[in-house]
Amino acid sequence: MNKVDSRGWRMALAGTACALLLASCTRKEPRANEEPPNPADSQTDQTPPECQGPRDPGRVTLHRLNRAEYDNTVRDLLGDTTRPARDFPADDHGYGFDNNADVLSLGPLLMEKYSAAAEKLVEATWKQDATRDPPLVRVCAPDPADPLPCGRQILERFTRRAWRRPVTSTEVDRLMGFLSLASEHGDSFDAGMKLALRAVLLSPHFLYRVELDPNPASTEPHRLNDYELASRLSYFLWSSMPDEALLAAAGTGTLHTPEQLERQVRRMLADPKAEALVDNFAGQWLYTRALDSFHPDPLLYPFDDGLREAMRQETRLVFREFLLGNRPARDLMDADFTYVNDRLAQHYGLPGPGTQEMRRVSLAGHPERSGLLGQGSILAVTSHPDRTSPVKRGLWVLEQLMCEAPPPPPPNVEGLPPAVDPKMSIKQRMARHRSDPTCAGCHTLMDPIGYGMENFNVVGAWRLKEEVSGAEVDPSGDLPGDVHFKDGVELRAILKADPELDICIAQHLLAYGLGRGPVNADACTLRDVSKQAEARGGRLSDLILAITQSEAFTWRRGEAEGTNEGGAP
Amino acid sequence: MKDFKLSRRTLLRGMGTLMALPVLEQMVPSVARAAGPGAAPRRLAVFYVPCGIYMPNWTPKGTGRDWTLSPTLQPLAPVKDDVLVLSGLSHEPGRPDQFGHHAAGTGAFLSCVKIHKTDEEEDVRAGVSMDQLAARALRPYTRLPSLELGNDGGDGTGSCDASFSCAYARNIAWAAPTSPVAKDTNPRSVFDRLFAGFDPDATRAQIEKRKAYEQSILDFVREDAQGLKQKLGTRDRRKLDEYFTSVRELELRVAALDQQAPTCSKGPRPGNTEDVREKTKVMCDLMVLAFQCDLTRVATFMLGNGRSDRVYDFLGLTSGHHTYSHHQHVPENHAALAKIDRWEMEQFSYLLQRMKSVQEGDATLLDNALVYFGSEVADGNSHGHSDMPVLLAGRGGGTVTPGRHVRYGGKPVANLFISMLQSVGVNVSSFGDDGSGPLSHLKE
Q1: Which residues 15-34 in chain B show a CB within 8 A of chain A?
Q2: Which of B221, B253, B308 to mutate to test the interface with A (most CBs of A within 10 A)?
Q3: Could you give the ipTM of this predicted complex?
């Protein structure tokens, strides 16, 4: 295998990084005379000048709970597992994630759904709590002679949990008003309590994650209070509300200390609720959520829901193991194990584990299946229904693993038509990308990476020949900077050796963890995060830990007045 | 929820039967408020299809009343005299500076405003859409100002189109430049929403109590929001404004709890389905039901999201819609597109026939409506924004003469929107970036 010169390749990539115009992709040989940013920086203590001094922690816009967060929150708050948010309108995406606070809007339709859901949730919980042991909400039995003290106790506790912070006595007083209202109308204590609980669930303090700035118009950074930090942690790792232990830690005022933060993060990652990180972070980072709408051409590629589910589980289980396990995050590129059941093993051409349950299997002797690039879920969602797409696969690698998205194609050339001549191999058809100078720049980066994955068909099965053309698959490719690989295994090694792989993973984690897009200072934060994580072992959990301890995560600032871009009607 | 017990309706079951009902006397009061005694309310509907149309199969031969249906328009045969084909209209605001024609075209589809390029996928900004202007004006007359429907939510991944925010490709209705109006993609939940809160057996006192309770909850949370707003910065306050608007809208619904009991049979509650054929049909039924019961007078429907790559396997097609739409002049792709377009037209025709089957006095629901059909681009391959595929159906209560093919030499679609808005009683003389006045030749 050729000696991997990732730096040269990375430099060629960098030429496209800040490209706004298509022409930028056509940039050739960026190595000459230009000293690349030294990848070894991440191993030294030398802090670049722009990363010295005070750093902008950024600010997260008032964050509405997205659908997953709403469902998980009512699950933990009310024991409700009906996932009421399934009927809510879809959340928009920003920076690849549907938890971006800036694009999470709230319109009348959603408000109606919130209102209907609150009524239904409260009715169900109130009823179930009559027999639930211990009760989640009705934590005391009201004295018929004077039910108010118990009512107060229930509301105080419930509201603290629902609003994820202590409530003031004024707030509880206002809620107690619903008891009087009900009794004025001749209704019972229960009726008044249910009204109050609905109000709690419809309040902006529940529907939004509120973080306050002492002076909203000042850009001076300040530390989050511990309750705000608790919510950031729990919505990052669990897509849900803080539990009692986290609220208690916030209550002691020590949550922000590095020791306490680490203790909580480790505890939370080990909790089954961290499954949310798999579903919501990995599902979007790796695109595997798109599996639901994946419909391959049934004549060419046998596929069914059993296979779909097995593929989804495979990626979930592998990611979960990385989250909890002891391997460096970069091993995601070539991990020598995976999870399969008999069906998936047969599909992959691996020995079956003898069950339809997903089992961990070694990939020793099957390096072609190792790591993310060997997983059916990812290979499928980066394909067209009727053919593989080196372009989509290459783009996926560049965007999701390298954080180097090339600019979009010019008008009129998007999408590749089916082969005019079905005898043409994929590489022959892709040759068009190189012959056209407006395409060549970007496709010189994307297409070869995709070639390295060409041994996998649309549904991720191994193949030596293309289905339609019958041409033999040629999985070799040339990357800019004179980097050559002969197959997918060598491609994995190149990707794994990329000095910024960790930084890229951290970048996606940060955008997701904060629910905001990047600010300039985040480049420095990511550099620090990856350095700290590396020193601890470079595991996924180390990256997460380093992120939660960064200033971007624990601090925020206000927003100078007069930056009101966009306009109210 | 219990069924409504209107004695004269008890024999009627199902939406199919419903469509043939004569105008109900109970409807008259709200009708009268809208357009004078005896006149039926005017409705405005929009039917959006993604990825453009294969235009050579679309444009009819002949003009005026002397025209023949093109192959794609063939499914409109039963309603040919109710449809106006408008050729040669342009939609320049939908043209982005560089990439992202689908996002830009969809964001501008009804707003006619060039959308803000969201390089950073936030700070979304389009313009107030035509349907929402109408909804605002017609707000006093119905329980719901408007109904936004669609087949696709959008749980996909990555960006929607050339780093434009997904909000553009997923919404055609915009209440404010920064506020897309989310659409409902679940038929059952649309149905529940249309008929929420009604209890035909409730006494006056019970209704009053319910109103008092609901209002007190809304008072409580609005006070919360007001207290919060004082502590927030500019951008957060803007986020919270969406909350205030939504609470106000809910208040209107609560206030109307006793006023506007539905005046028609609601039929069976639809099931949920992800089959696009069934879903489209049910969504059309629901639109007609909402109009017929006068629960709203404005409705929009997105058959798919902008740049949809749906695989129409039931048409024998194996690749996605968007992929085919970049046909590269390959005949097989043209054939695939023509199939999809024709299927879309069958759905549109179904909607029109449903509307036409509802009698309202001497006229039909369709006669009292204007239904706009369009897409975010003209031809998907070249991403054209001139010579858009545009249809207008219905008579708008006599403001439009359908049954014709009219050719325009590049007039903006926004002018058509001005005419449509005027037709439902909204007094506008300009609209969007390029709407300068009503479109000529809509009435003969």
Answers
A1: none
A2: B221
A3: 0.90
B176 has a chain A CB within 8 A of its CB? yes
Check pLDDT > 50 for residue B138: yes
Q: Which residue has the tokens 């792989």?
A: A501
Please name the amino acid found at residue B67: W
Strands A337-340 and B404-407: unpaired
Phi, psi of A186 (to 5 degrees): 75, 20
- pTM score, whole prediction: 0.89
Q: Do A297 and B235 touch (CB under 8 A)?
A: no
Q: By mean pLDDT, which of B166-170, B243-247, B407-411 is the weakest?
A: B166-170
Preceding amide of A134 cis, omega within 30: yes
Sign of dihedral through CA atoms A236, A239, A245, A247? positive
Residue of B nearest to A297 (CA): B318
Q: Give the one of B101, B116, B167 whose C-beta lies nearest to A103's C-beta.
A: B167
Touching check for B313 and chain A: CB below 8 Å? yes
Beta carbons of B412 and B436 less than 8 angstroms apart: yes
Identify the residue among A25, A64, A105, A432 best suited for mutation to test binding to B, counting B beta carbons within 10 A and taking the highest.
Answer: A105
Distance from the B239 Cα atom to the nearest Cα atom in chain A, whole angstroms: 7
For testing the chain B interface, which of A60, A100, A103 should be mutated: the one with the most B CBs within 10 Å? A103
User: Can you name the residues that pair with A208 across neighbouring β-strands?
Assistant: A64
The pair phi, psi for residue B364, each rounded to 5°, is -115, 165
How far out from the chain centre does Cα B288 lie?
A: 12
Instruction: Find the helix packing angle between A522-536 and A501-514, rounded to 10°.
Output: 120
The closest alpha carbon to B147, from B196, B101, B113, B102, belongs to B196
Helix then strand then coil, in percent of chain A rounded to 5, is 50, 5, 40
**Burial of A218 (C-beta count, 10 Å sphere; 0-12/13-18/19+):** middle
Look at residue B159 in the predicted model and tell me its pLDDT. 57
Per-residue pLDDT reduced to its tens digit, A51-75? 888 899 999 999 999 999 999 999 9
- B335 inside 8 A of chain A by CB: no
How far is B22 from B17, CA to CA, in rounded Å? 11
Cβ atoms of B51 and B307 within 8 Å: the answer is yes
Handedness of CA A415, A420, A422, A425 (dihedral sign): negative
Q: What is the C-alpha to C-alpha distance for residues A266 and A544, in angstroms, rounded to an integer? A: 10
- Whether the ω angle into residue A437 lies within 30 degrees of 0, i.e. cis, is no
Contacts 24+ apart (CB under 8 A), B200-208: B200/B2, B200/B4, B200/B5, B200/B261, B201/B2, B204/B258, B207/B257, B207/B258, B208/B258
Does residue B95 sit at the A interface (CB-CB below 8 Å)? Answer: no
Q: What is the DSSP string of A20-39?
A: -SGGGGG---TTTTPPPPPG
Kindly give the pairing relationship between strand B83-87 and strand B390-393: antiparallel
Torsion B63-B64-B68-B71 (CA) sign: positive
Task: State the pLDDT confidence band at B261, using cuts at 50, 70 and 90.
Answer: low
Q: Tell me the backbone φ, ψ of residue B137, rounded to 5 degrees.
A: -70, -35
Closest chain A residue by Cα to residue B159: A96
Start-to-end CA distance of chain A, whole Å, equals 61
